[in-house]
Amino acid sequence: MNSSPQKFEDLSATGDNADGGSLTVEQAIANLESEDLGLRFYAAWWLGRFRISEPAVVTGLIKALEDEADRTPEGGYPLRRNAARALGKLGDRQAVSPLIACLDCSDFYVREAAAQSLEMLGDPVCIPALIKLLAAGLHGEQLVSQQPDLSQPYEAILEALGTLRANEFTSLVKPFLEHPIELVQYAAARAMYQLTEEPAYGERLVKALAGERLQLRRAVLADLGAIGYLPAADAIAQTLAENSLKLISLKGLLEHQVNHTTPTTLSEDAIKVINLMDSLL
Amino acid sequence: MNNSDLAQILIRAVQEADSSERLVDAVQELAAASIEESVPTLIAALGYNNPGAAVAAVDGLIAIGEAAVSPLLELIDDYNYGARAWALRALAGIGDVRALDTLLEAAKTDFSLSVRRAAARGLGTLRWHQVPLEKVESVQTEVLEALLLISQDPEWVVRYAAVTSLETLAIAIAVTLPEQASQITNQLQQILDTDADLGVRTRVKFAQEKIQQQQHQEVFAPKRKLQDTEVEVPHRGGGRR
To answer: Which of A38, A156, A177, B151 fits B162 for a cystine, CB–CB 3.0-4.6 Å?
Structure first.
């Protein structure tokens, strides 16, 4: 999140040849087992980026989740991280169990990537494993006393629990509204809204759009888009951030609205969001 | 104090702003004054990597309008795509047809999706009355061809912007170029049927509604005239009864 705004919006998005089009699918799959660790790392990213969800890719990436060759000086697993991230994008549920196993990995970033991808894959079978990680930050139904606790990727875990509708664990999500890290608070608010649909949690995010730091406002735009919180529309359009991010956020509201109403005609709310989006193009 | 003195004070405030918030405030004040002299400073503010300042500067440039077009076209930053996107947004907001070639090229070929998006939008906000009458149809056809191409961009937001412009163009040419107008309605239907993105498809539905509303109005107006004449027929023929 600390890259410049242009990078933020354009890096992952230019399309086919600017960033890696020289690879073919066959090459990328072969590169997952290359002697050159750099090529493996890049191939895993590339296959996810271009959503190549062929069986051989899924198998190769699942295998890469147990890679031992590529290590950082701190003991991290760069290839596992990229493989975990890619598997979330490919939408193949074969990856669910191997990703659940990654939640026990010693590398924080592998656990984070696994939680994010499990959220994307949408299979609630991973909820108990996510709760186990979340509980590391809790004494009963309160946050552990030593704060800020950075031992687990709470942001990703909370977001996944919200998306996966882990309703029976609402009481374990709620304490994280008080976490000292703002991004974790927002993730908790986002999850609480998804679990309870109480507007107070949406409003908590709307309030954060008026915050001082651009980086946090960007994160909140993503959260509001993800939950499709319609009353935030005007605040999203007005917050000081890149139009690209506001447009993505408003698109989340629009799609949520369309998905939850009869498809024959556009509702007034949908039209309102469209008009705001048009004004930001 | 005359405008020039005021401009100098406000410009200096922008140059001396030492925090993000002060910069936003200073650019907002300069933009609100709407003085031509401030155009280069406002354009510079598009490149500060500060979205608040850029939004204010775009608003200011749009308010100044035609006088800002040449400097925008001259000073467009080829090396900073953030600034370029904001500059194209300003040009789109002004709608001056002098920007046409810049908009066409940017919409079709710029590598930055935010630049392509702003340019695609700008192609739908051109003020057609500025084009000499004998050239309007050929220019509109050129814009249509560009929009049909851009509406297949790999990025959803560029396709979304292209749809907004196809909508306004379809309405603008409904009577003068009916064949091209129906090309647009066909393309919109195809996007609705095939686009992977729900947001884009939803925008297409909205465009279709707007175009239909327009058609109703067009059909309704001549019909009323027809009815008027029909009313006269029995009146005139009344003597035969």
So the answer is: B151
B chain contacts of residue A21, beta-carbon cutoff 8 Å: none
In 3D space, the residue among A220, A210, A138, A203 whose CA is nearest the CA of residue A174 turns out to be: A138
CB contact under 8 A, B49 and A5: yes
Kindly report which listed range (A8-12, B70-74, B77-81) carries the lowest average pLDDT score: A8-12
Give the model confidence (pLDDT) of B183-220 as tens digits. Answer: 999 999 999 999 999 999 999 999 999 999 887 776 66
C-alpha distance from B144 to closest chain A C-alpha (Å):
19
Contact criterion met (CB below 8 Å) for A53 and A90? yes
Number of Cβ pairs < 8 A linking chain A and chain B:
81
pLDDT > 70 in chain A, percent: 91
In 10 A of CB A89, how many CB atoms? 17
Assess contact for A107 and A78: CB atoms under 8 A. no
Is the pLDDT score of B168 beyond 80?
A: yes
Phi, psi of A141 (to 5 degrees): -110, 30
- Look at the pTM and tell me if it is higher than 0.90: no
Q: What is the pLDDT of residues A120-139, one digit of tens each?
A: 999 999 999 999 999 999 99
Question: What's the rounded Cα separation, in Å, for the pair A246 and A158?
Answer: 23
> Which of A200, A176, A259, A191 shows the shortest CA–CA distance to A227?
A191
- The kind and range of the H/E element at A138 are strand A138-139
Quote the tokens at residue B105: 């090229």
The pair phi, psi for residue B95, each rounded to 5°, is: 80, 15
